[in-house]
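User: Can you fold this complex?
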Amino acid sequence: MSEATEIPIEERLVAAHGYASLAGVFVSVLFGLAVSLKFNFPEFLSQDSWLTWGRLRFDHTQGILYGWLGNLFLAFLYYAVPYLTRRPVTSVRLGWIVFVLWNFVAVLGGWTLVLTGVNQPLEWAEFPLIVAAVIELAWVLLICQFVVPFFKCGASEIYVAGWYLLGAITFTGLAYPVGNIVPNLLPGAMGAAFSGLWIHDAVGLFVTPFGVAIAYFVIPAVTRRPIYSHFYSMVGFWLLFLVYPLNGTHHYLYSSLPMGAQHAAEVASIYQGIDVILVVANLLLSIPLGRAARAFSDVPLRFVWTSIVLYLIVSLQGSVQAVMSFNRYVHFSDWVIGHSHLAMIGFASFAGMGGLAHIWQRLSGVRFHPLLLAYSYWLLVAGLALMVVDLTAAGLVQASLWQAHLPWLESVRASRPYWLFRAMDGLLMVIGFATFAGSLLMGPIRHPNRAKVLAYPEDALPAGNNWINTAYATTFGAGLLFFVVSFVALGIIPATLLRAEIIRTTPAGVSLKLTPSESRGRAIYAKNGCGYCHSQQVRNLATDIRRFGPPSSAWETANDIPQLWGTRRIGPDLAREGARRTPDWQLVHLYNPRYIVPDSIMPSYSWLFGGDPESPSEQASDVVAFLLSLGRSAEPKLKDTPVAISIGSVTGEGREIFVANCSGCHGLNGDGESPGGRALRPPALNLTAFEMTDAIVTAALWHGVRGSSMPAWGELKGDELTIGQLNAVASYAASLESADALPETGMLASKEILHEAGYRVYETHCTRCHGETGESDGPDAMKRYPLPARFTEVRPSYAVAAKVIHEGVRGTAMEAWPLLTPGEIQAVTLYLRSFYKGPERHMVAPPRATMEMHP
Amino acid sequence: MIIAVSILLVTALLAAMIALRYLSPAFRERMELPKYRFQASLGTKENKNVER
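Assistant: Here's the predicted assembly.
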């Protein structure tokens, strides 16, 4: 055998990417921790636009993908490629160019731009297009750097880890534009078809092959034994690259994408699970049982072994999730978030950390602390296990509540303990990652022999047969072809079918065009990540339809670029939001959701206002304009069902329901004293200042009040209360009213004179709207929106009537009458009160002069 | 349909590879060579963390 020559490893580039990965993960998990804290403390960091939930969420996942995992894999590439090819990488200078591009332009630049609001609302593609272009350029340079050395090897000589690296670099370079650029060119469902591909390819073609490559590298390096079967490792490799790209559409099951594509993705996902069983079996068999205990004293191998086991679990979980009959329950829930953390931390990060620590032990001039590494392993294993169990349980709770006929907010309330636990566990994960970083930054500086590869001369080992080389090259070409097939089958064909369907099904005369204000609002909505909590696709499932309305059709989003379908529901779906709420409700809710919905965990967007909900900026008005446009084209018809509730005795449950659902606007005591209630137009009713008939209380609860923000609790899709709950809250609300009477000492004239004077004032100023008999049937009544008060059903107290007449009611046609004298006001109040046909109630509380009257 | 045909093709290809492996000892041996070459590249690396 001829003398072997030595090939150096570019240790400085390995170390540079290693250090960058540590910085990347530290910042990224802090973003994640802040995001999880906001679930529990919605006002935390909510005063500035750049720290809003959505933008931090974007930076969390993009930082993990590029700042953390990207750098880990690059460090591994600089170390592994010389071993796998027995040749150096193409260029050290090119390596530093990529390092700067990757870290200072893509990651740092991307983070900064996202925080300033320059981003795109596409999952796993949130960095803006300019950064996407830099990353794509980096991929091309990476192909030059790492793929070229493989060209000089015979295809049949390449070890499986090399194949995985080749596949990862090549296929990700091809898939990257699919998810980052194409959805900016194709609207709605067509864009979603391509987004779905990238969501899966980011994991399947970028993260997974690198993770598996590290396992195939580290296991034989530590155990000093070849892997169990190179043949089966290659079978696993081909299956992964041939089938993985076919999975993507399973992120949009039961959507308006062609059902054939959905079924195909479902089948491919199950097939993928079979492949993972093969890959993991081969890897586990490569660590002989007799040596396992000794091998596990090597902590990096322990990281890698854990990643393999979790790879099996998360992949089989993924296959099950993609089965439509199961997906319908857990999709949009925290189950999926648990799954993604298991994949990105349990599999990818553990593999990467094992690989980096393995390399670090062999680098010269770096510090290494073995004990901290062992501690970090246990901290991260514990943190991950707790997080995945917690999120999986939360997902199951959410799924069961969504299936039930309960208001959406019930799932938010039920999730709170899980979210609090997740945030606390997130702190444990931060400590775990910091300990891992400490293990590579502390301890004594190591001076092992400079890492290098012994390059055996070509005659030292048997050469590959030509036909096998050809077969390998052909199969790799077939892999590329299959990637194109996936692109065609799950992207281009569905898009073509959708285009035809949209033309065929769009109703005549419907305009999907947004006004300039709505378009600006959509952009603000998108760049702040609203679509990451609120989906905009009602699936074709009974539970979705019952809760949100008719299923979303492809034509409805035919103008939406980029699509905002979403894959998660923390808040309700908003595809039909436009017809549900009034503009002022949306404004107050946007300013501070807890003003109106006390248990909401939605962040405040008070930075879009000038200090209070009554001072919206143009941006806030634009967002509300966009929200009101949602579902406009589908024109959902509200039910007009007969009122099915009645008033009975007051119960504790009634107060609980009132506090949970009504107090945000009406105040805890029902006196309208809440910041949210005061900001509405018209303001929320002071329930303590009116007597009301049972009929109007129940009708208002059941149907809502047109022209006001009072929702139709009996008909509100997704948030409707049960009949029993409505009965209880109606009884409680009715009990809040205060009977009022004018004491003799307070009368400015005799009752007869007041009645006569009141008649004259009423006839002069009030009949055109309120009608001659207080039935709200005057000639102008139907021109008013909301309708004028019907005094046969509602009787105001003297105090509140005086206030309303003197000041008017904002947001209604009720004007102020400042020239009326106190005597005239008292007279007209006495007169209009005489119309009331409800039962005379006993006075249960002294009359209060508080809020304006709701007409 | 395209996906179904693709998956069938992949299955057929892999079945053929597995059949070839069992029918041809030379093929089987050749397919395992890369792992030995890789092991040779690693050969001189010292691992002080694994007990012998």
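Residues 44-52 of chain B have pLDDT under 50 and may be disordered. Residues 2-23 of chain B form the longest helix (22 residues).
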